[in-house]
Amino acid sequence: MALFFGVIAGLLGGLARVSPPAPLRAMAAAYVSVIRGTPFIVQLFFVYYAFPQLGVQVPPMVAAVGCLAVYSGAYQTEIVRGAIESIERGQVEAARSLGLTAAQAMRYVVLPQAFLRMLPPLGNEFVALTKNSALVSLVTVQELLLSAQLIISATFQNFAIYLTIGIMYYIMTTVVSTGTQLLERRLKVYV
Amino acid sequence: MERSVSAVQPMLQARGLSKRFGEHEVLKGIDLSIARGEVVAIIGPSGSGKSTLLRCLNLLERPDAGEIWFEGACITDPQVDVNRVRMRMGMVFQLFNLFPHLTVLHNVTLAQERVLRTPRAQAQERARELLSKVGLAAKEQAYPNSLSGGQKQRVAIARALAMKPAVMLFDEPTSALDPEMVQEVLTAMGELVDEGMTMAVVTHEMGFARRAADRVVFVDEGRIVAEAPPERFFSDANSDRVRQFLAKIPG
Ligand SMILES: Nc1ncnc2c1ncn2[C@@H]1O[C@H](COP(=O)(O)OP(=O)(O)O)[C@@H](O)[C@H]1O
Ligand SMILES: [Mg+2]
After folding, report:
1. I need a surface site. Which of A187, B132, B143, B150 has the fewest CB within 10 A?
2. Does the CB atom of residue B52 touch ligand 1 within 6 A?
3. A179 touches chain B (CB under 8 A)
4. Ligand 1 pocket: which of B18, B28, B51, B219 to mutate (most atoms <8 Å of CB)?
5. What is the 3-state secondary structure (H, E, C) of chain B?
6. Which domain does A176 fall in, by range?
7. pTM metric for this prediction
8. What is the CATH number for A53?
């Protein structure tokens, strides 16, 4: 189920990443950036323990599936975007020169080809997703075992602590990924 | 070979067309008029802006200044639906740009079905007609990657013709081909010329330009620097720049 929703999130995210409206592109980029920049376990704890403190009660099953889908969706967004951008420009140009709209060119020419190129990396992503689902069940079990009291006594700090950890991780990974992106751009010039 | 070239109203006309990519001004005020049924060969050194000119004509590139008129309407007007314009102009690319995930037949029916809303059976019928016209009836179920370059380009021509375009734009259609395949593509193009198709052909095939074109246009550094019927163009009446260029091209 997380797999299914993850694919949907990935497809929507990937299309948004290459879509004409800038706000949509920016939103998708922010989504990918935040989710990839924080450890899954932190996201999971955030939803499990911090959401209730904000007054949002999330059933464990929904939280688990939701977290997995959102997390995996971010990676799949990048896979989808990469595959779409790997299709030669001439394909879209040929389609447009025949009078197809941008959306039709995407639907009938680019996506079918991009889909083939997505498959191998998506396969890897599904493996990773499966592994993460183990983590989810661990937390769920743990939650079941913990008494309500324990949670209540702990949650006061949980929110702040997990948020702080998350933000720190995010800053670190953002620095690293920005660095590699710059490097990538440098290298591409010489290809 | 008798062709009627209407001088009354041009089919396709560029007026003061300019295009720049960043600092680089690629087209510097192009005026070009193509009459109904006319075949114009566009030649010039690599990087002179020939492809950009063709791509501006069907609005794959937006010109920065100037106007394009097509079938009596100004198509650079922002109100104009570019898709409706493009379906009336066929384009053939140097690297074919066939859709590799579709069969040859489907390459030729896709736009008919999606743009013209032609029912499938009818689209296929027209596709088969065009494929046999370019000598590829037997290949309709093949995928593009199994074809030779010459075959691919002939499919690309059929794909463009399927839309019943008023004008065909060719961007160096034989430049990526092995020499032995050039002729089959030129033959298919020659047939179009004989049928009275209006054509703009960027090419280095001087034989084709001489034989088939009504006019040869020489582009250099984003400007049209010479323009004449082939018999005059290839004779002596030209600038040093054009002669220099022609001297480097075999044939
Ligand atoms: N999309 C683009 N972005 C930047 N520069 C471009 C682009 N397309 C073409 N150019 C530049 O414009 C010039 C003319 O290119 P082109 O029209 O392809 O010439 P030709 O077809 O005569 O060889 C070249 O210097 C090329 O590098
Ligand atoms: Mg070119």
Report:
1. A187
2. yes
3. no
4. B51
5. CCCCCCCCCEEEEEEEEEEEECCEEEEEEEEEEEECCCEEEEECCCCCCHHHHHHHHCCCCCCCEEEEEECCEECCCCCCCHHHHHCCEEEECCCCCCCCCCCHHHHHHHHHHHCCCCCHHHHHHHHHHHHHHCCCHHHCCCCHHHCCHHHHHHHHHHHHHCCCCCEEEEECCCCCCCHHHHHHHHHHHHHHHHCCCEEEEECCCHHHHHHHCCEEEEEECCEEEEEECHHHHCCCCCCHHHHHHHHHCCC
6. 2-190
7. 0.83
8. 1.10.3720.10
